[in-house]
Design a protein that fits this description.
Chain lengths: 331, 355
């Protein structure tokens, strides 16, 4: 049994005037204990909405359907009532933008102790000792507990937010673009820290990012989202070397590799609007391989290999072999 | 689609030759540029008449951009790359150094002459969501600079706007003229911002992280547009970026900045494939490869990111340098040619005692 399983998750946002945005349109994910999985996609694809739904942290104008199973229990069964018991204690989140996630007028130590007291994990001197221990775990000196966020560099702040997420000893860490605003040297340090933490604590990591190389280096598996749906999910090695969805291939080809000799590609057009129904494959208008069924029939996510699923009609054609992104394929 | 990447472009090579006639000179030349920012003293400090303190954000930067060439200025946040760009555009007053544009000394150009110069150099901002006024339709945003500079009549201004949109890859232009920024995608917005920079037919574009706010799938389109502009219109481009991969793929030359100095510069592929400065090597090692089977062990630098209020003595990189030598705390190395016999001889330079 998987540690965390998302089944057919849907999220709608009420926009007023009877309009509705279907931000997540049926997402399935599984995470096994100790695994690092990437959730990849561009802005507006629903990746952050997906993990906010898992955490039960969506704003009031959102409605959710589907199941989120933690250790086999549906934590969204009765909404906030059930998910609150899991939030921070079993599932914790690292937010994008470390500065905004920290309270500027409280010491870092205070901010680490608060969730422990709130969830009855520890209080008083024990909470303080644990706060200092957590800081050590993320590579900060224990004395950082007595300092304020503005005294920290960007990388130190991101370490502090990771320590906060770990305060109640969660099993699963959901990290939303944890390195996006950081310089490359600091990014490398934070990625190294995430690997160490998952290995030392047996943590399970869901890494949400638009940055494919980060996922390629950190994760064993990844799911590629487009327009609220999963385009493809599987071992990261397969996604790179044998993608089974044109979007995955083009996304890799649009990502410059520093030593790569192939030209960097781009994808024409923009993702579809999610406030109206999408008849066929959502990627079809931008796809370089679209054919007869694509504009009208939405391709289901089907198994295309061991632990590998893709939602593309091309996989129904026996003779079709999609070129690899790694081979420097041309659009 | 194919992007030409001249590795040893003849135009770029010409930029390094001594030039007597203005026609032979690079489009933009900065020599030993220094930019200081005052540190706020606070009321008490001002009343006590404490001496004004400065942060030296740019400390002796020399660079050239030739016509049709793209120079990428690469570095981490706080290294002074954006300040350099602003000084080059004369948006900031340099404390020392000289700036030449088209051979003419513009270091101390008075305000009136500066306005004429501004037509010839344009800045493309990082965030097209902020650089375009949300209340203005595309044509209003683009025609405004033409009106300010008194270019043509209404009909001519509209025609220039159409041409610029088309050159920026927004065709047919009539589809975009009446739109508001919120009706455009991120990539389209940045193309409009670039088109707005093109209406005055500048000779130099300074692009500050032109693609970093855009989605991965459209980034290369905007960067390829810049490549096309310099090839077709002979535009010189100074691109500011923190992204080494982008610089490697789209620039002719790369200059790496650290704490207000250029520590290494040369042809883009040479800097990436054969970095000479330990800082460049460390930065490159930290860039994650796209291929999951490739592994690169990042050479993590010790110490905190550089702080321009406390510049170390000697080589400013020495406290973090993995190859620090005995003399490094005392010697402040200048850029020197990296020994090479190939076509890059003399064009690849680094500021390190080990070179």
């Amino acid at each position: 049994m998987s540690l965390l399983e998302v089944r057919d998750l849907h999220v709608w946002f009420e926009l007023g005037h009877g309009r509705e945005l279907h931000a997540v349109q049926g997402v399935d994910l599984t995470l096994d204990q100790g695994e690092r999985v990437g959730l990849v996609g561009e802005s507006g694809c629903g990746k952050t909405t997906t993990i906010l739904a898992v955490m039960g942290l969506l704003p009031p104008n959102a409605s959710v359907a589907g199941e989120v199973l933690f250790d086999g229990e549906n934590i969204l069964r009765r909404g906030e009532e059930t998910v609150a018991a899991y939030r921070w204690k079993d599932l914790a989140m690292v937010f994008q933008g470390a500065m905004n996630a920290l309270n500027p007028v409280k010491t870092v130590g205070w901010q680490l102790r608060e969730p422990m007291q709130l969830h009855g994990v520890a209080s008083g001197a024990r909470a303080d000792a644990r706060a200092r221990e957590l800081l050590g775990l993320v590579g900060l000196p224990a004395s950082a507990a007595d300092r304020y966020p503005h005294e920290f560099s960007g990388g130190m702040r991101q370490r502090a937010t990771i320590a906060m997420a770990l305060a109640c000893d969660p099993k699963v860490l959901l990290a939303d673009e944890p390195t996006t605003a950081l310089d490359v040297m600091v990014q490398a340090q934070i990625l190294q820290l995430l690997v160490e933490l998952t290995e030392r604590l047996g943590l399970t990591l869901l890494l949400v990012t638009h940055d494919l190389p980060v996922v390629a280096q950190l994760c064993q598996r990844a799911a590629v989202m487009y327009a609220g749906t999963l385009a493809e999910a599987g071992p990261i090695d397969q996604l790179y070397h044998q993608p089974r969805h044109p979007y995955t291939r083009l996304l890799f080809a649009a990502t410059p590799d520093i030593y790569g000799e192939d030209d960097v590609q781009w994808i024409r057009g923009a993702p579809p609007r999610l406030d109206r129904p999408i008849p066929g494959c959502p990627f079809q208008p931008r796809c370089d391989r679209a054919f007869a069924p694509c504009p009208t029939e939405r391709p289901p996510l089907r198994v295309v290999g061991p632990a590998h699923r893709a939602a593309c009609h091309l996989n129904d054609l026996d003779s079709e072999v999609q070129p690899s992104a790694g081979a420097g394929s041309r659009a | 689609m194919s992007l030409e990447r001249p590795i040893a472009g003849s135009r770029a090579a010409a930029a390094d030759l001594p030039a007597d006639r203005p026609a032979d000179r690079p489009l933009l030349e900065a020599h030993d540029l220094v930019v200081d920012y005052p540190i706020r003293r606070g009321l008490v400090g001002a009343m006590r008449r404490e001496p004004q303190q400065h942060v030296r954000a740019v400390d002796g930067v020399s660079l050239t951009v030739a016509k049709g060439e793209m120079l990428a200025l690469v570095g981490e946040s706080g290294c002074g790359k954006t300040t350099t760009a602003r000084a080059v555009l004369r948006m900031l007053e340099p404390a020392a150094g000289t700036l030449r544009f088209g051979g003419e000394d513009i270091t101390h150009l008075p305000a009136k002459a500066l306005r004429q110069l501004r037509r010839r150099m344009q800045l493309i901002y990082q965030d097209p969501y902020e650089s375009l006024d949300p209340r203005f339709r595309v044509h209003a945003t683009m025609e405004e600079p033409l009106a300010i500079h008194g270019v043509g009549d209404r009909a001519e201004r509209r025609q220039r706007t159409r041409d610029a949109l088309e050159r920026a890859g927004l065709a047919p232009p009539d589809l975009y003229l009446d739109r508001y920024p919120h009706e455009l995608s991120g990539g389209q917005r940045q193309r409009v911002a670039i088109a707005a920079g093109l209406v005055l037919e500048p000779e130099l574009l300074v692009a500050d992280e032109p693609a970093s706010m855009l989605d991965v799938s459209v980034r290369a389109g905007v960067l390829a547009l810049l490549t096309r502009l310099r090839q077709e219109a002979d535009l010189g481009i100074l691109m500011i970026t923190h992204d080494f991969s982008t610089a490697a793929h789209f620039a002719d030359r790369i200059a790496v900045m650290y704490l207000g100095r250029i520590v290494e510069e040369g042809p883009a592929r040479t800097v990436v494939n054969a970095p000479a400065h330990p800082y460049t090597r460390a930065l490159l090692s930290a860039v994650p490869p796209r291929n999951p089977r490739e592994r690169r062990i990042p050479e993590i630098l010790k110490g905190e990111p550089p702080d321009p209020t406390a510049i170390p003595r000697g080589c400013r990189f020495h406290p973090r340098c993995p190859l620090v030598q005995e003399q490094c705390p005392t010697i402040d190395p200048a850029l020197r040619p990296v020994p090479s016999s190939g076509p890059d001889a003399g064009r690849h330079r680094a500021a390190c005692v080990l070179v």
